[in-house]
Design a protein that fits this description.
Number of domains: 1
Largest sheet: 3 strands, antiparallel
Mean pLDDT: 92
Shape: elongated
CATH architecture: 2-Layer Sandwich
Low-confidence stretches: none
Number of strands: 3
Strand order of the largest sheet: 2-1-3
Number of helices: 3
Order of helices and strands: EHHEHE
CATH class: Alpha Beta
Helix content: 40-55%
């Protein structure tokens, strides 16, 4: 004869909600694809593929979220994008 045991577990889940801001990159008629890609790789630590995809999204849609995170981390990155001549803002 076999005995089956039922085990009841109590699981506690805690979620931490933090507001993630976004750096939005906007299209312009000034910067080349190469400049945008190189800047995204340097400033936002994108891979080549990520930077290329973001540059195409910006080109065809007019804007793209290129980085998310806490505001204190995004501010210096957005400043570097602006200094490089790109159009960007944090929302």
């Amino acid at each position: 004869m076999s005995v089956k045991e039922k085990v009841r577990e109590r699981v506690s889940v805690q979620e931490t909600t933090t507001k993630n801001n976004e750096i939005i990159l906007y299209n312009d008629d000034v910067n080349t694809f190469d400049h945008v890609i190189e800047t995204l790789m340097r400033v936002c630590e994108h891979t080549v593929e990520q930077a290329e995809q973001c540059s195409l999204i910006v080109h065809y849609n007019g804007k793209c979220t290129v980085k998310t995170g806490p505001i204190n981390k995004l501010k210096p990155q957005c400043t570097l994008l602006l200094e490089a001549g790109l159009s960007a803002e944090i929302i």
